[in-house]
């Protein structure tokens, strides 16, 4: 078991370019167009239902906290993303406006969440949808909560340690189920969990720790991408998202050792990637 990771729309009026790094389109159908990118959105700001606009067009409406959207195919290019409190756009003042660059052939999740000190912000993460070995799954943990550094444990043993907002960590793990929890870094003080997560073979699983420690509403949300089996002609089947509440027994991660980290360049092919975001 190797470790480390992250848990990670801001009241910012200025736009700033944010590149959604290109994850290798492994497992894609041979005729898949490469001038588009798969983009998901995660809403991790408690107590705020929002509408999301891209270049003035409504992308999402009545988007509730703890929700992860299915991946959507977007043309490569630059998008002016605006987030409004539900029913306030597009003529009102956005709670967040940010310029996001979508690159060809990428797979990314844009997360609206709180910073470590409780301020709304937007972070874009690259999703690793490359193949995994037979009998394995991929696990990524993203710290997007208003909370201090944390450790993620499996069976009481730390797997990812000293994770800070808005970082992430990734490992190739044995497929299966394990009981896990999130504790304050270096302690046994449980912040979220314990709960179980089933990691199926050939999937890439993202766990978001979100919410606010001060407001006592820390929770988990999961996002799963299918089709990473190391079999010929497999086709990436997209993803799914689900919210997991504090101390829920619904879902949580199965963990295992990951051998050696591989440096991330344009493509994400790592067996373990530390602190990677875009």
Automatic annotation (TrEMBL):
Q: Pfam families attached here?
A: DUF4397
Q: Where is the signal peptide?
A: 1-28
What range(s) does the DUF4397 domain occupy? 37-153
Q: Which InterPro entries match?
A: DUF4397
Q: Look up the domain of life of the source.
A: Bacteria
- Record keywords: Signal
Q: What is this protein called?
A: DUF4397 domain-containing protein
The organism of origin for this protein: Streptomyces caelestis
């Amino acid at each position: 078991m190797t470790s480390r990771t992250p848990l990670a729309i801001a009241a910012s009026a200025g736009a700033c370019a944010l590149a959604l790094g290109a994850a290798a389109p492994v497992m894609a159908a041979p005729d898949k167009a490469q001038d588009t990118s798969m983009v998901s959105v995660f809403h991790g700001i408690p107590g705020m239902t929002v509408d999301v606009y891209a270049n003035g067009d409504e992308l999402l409406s009545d988007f509730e906290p703890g929700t992860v959207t299915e991946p959507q195919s977007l043309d490569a290019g630059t998008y002016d993303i605006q987030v409004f409190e539900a029913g306030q756009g597009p003529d009102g003042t956005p709670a967040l406006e940010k310029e996001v660059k979508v690159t060809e052939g990428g797979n990314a999740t844009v997360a609206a969440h709180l910073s470590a000190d409780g301020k709304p912000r937007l972070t874009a993460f690259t999703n690793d949808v490359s193949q995994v070995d037979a009998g394995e799954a991929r696990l990524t943990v993203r710290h997007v909560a208003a909370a201090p550094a944390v450790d993620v444990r499996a069976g009481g043993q730390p797997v990812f340690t000293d994770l800070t907002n808005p970082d992430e960590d990734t490992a190739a793990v044995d497929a299966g189920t394990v009981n896990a929890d999130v504790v304050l870094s270096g302690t046994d003080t449980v912040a979220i969990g314990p709960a179980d997560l089933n990691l199926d073979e050939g999937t890439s699983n993202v766990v978001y720790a979100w919410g606010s420690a001060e407001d006592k509403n820390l929770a988990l949300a999961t996002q799963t991408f299918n089709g990473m089996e190391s079999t010929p002609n497999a086709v990436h089947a997209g993803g799914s998202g689900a919210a997991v509440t504090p101390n829920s027994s619904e879902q949580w991660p199965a963990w295992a050792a990951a051998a050696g980290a591989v440096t991330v360049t344009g493509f994400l092919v790592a067996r373990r990637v530390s602190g990677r975001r875009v």
